[in-house]
Fold this protein.
Amino acid sequence: MGVRTYLMAILALVGLSLPVYSQTTLEWKFKVGEKYFVEETQDMKQTVSVIGKDIKQTVKTTTITSYTVKNIDGNGVTLEMKFESIQAKSEGDMPADGLDKLQDKMVGATFTLTLDKGKLTRFQGFKDFVKRLTDEDEEVGKVLKMFLTEETLKKGIEANFTLLPTTPVKKGDTWKREQNIPLGPLGNLKATNDYTFQGQEQDGAVVSFKGTMAFVPPTKDGGGEALFKVVKSNLKSDDARGSFVFDVEKGRMVRNSTSMTVRGSMTIEVMNNELEMEMSMELSTKSRVLSKNPKVN
């Protein structure tokens, strides 16, 4: 046996004796008729400085949304999403008289969506949602749709289903996700998150992330017939972070937590007058997935 052949044989034996680091496949799994609930609590603390005055506001919102699997075929999985309950409490300098009425109108709103490999390919219910919130008042509906567009809602929902890696991972593996969410006259929200697989815990696989986020002003015609126009903005967050736990066996999220601080300035134009605002916002969100509605005894 030559030296080269002998060395190759030794290396092969060494390779066989090395420990194999198991990989984990993180993927969504759905069963027709299955229903689960997502309880999300969001805390926001905001300060807006304009014309030498600080306007402070805190808002705590708890939302329960249900998802029911309606169909699975070659086009993907079809889900029914429903707002089961919304509770919001606001304190501060900004009026919130219509907050209770708005959240009451949202309860019961239903959307039908089809997901194919994590991408939202079909979305129904937005028009009825706008009618529900505006009592079919067309003028109020126009104003609402400037800020809450169908594309904004779709991208926000889709983002929840595109967090996972596309290939099996082992502890320490990383992957990146970029999101671009349109915000009507406010421009676009661009976010980049770097995810790291931390391994398995008792109740699921743990993934942590760090990210950045920035608001990009709209193009010259991007604001349409908006009540105001964003001239420039440097609002951004460099400290977005969080983690989530994913149940590999069930193929669904267990819990999720995120936090970030958004700071910067924004200049808007209203009736040909420019107004500059300094803004600071602390935002934290926690959610959990449950088999039963936590509001029902």
Residues 14-20 have pLDDT under 50 and may be disordered. The chain has five helices and twelve strands.
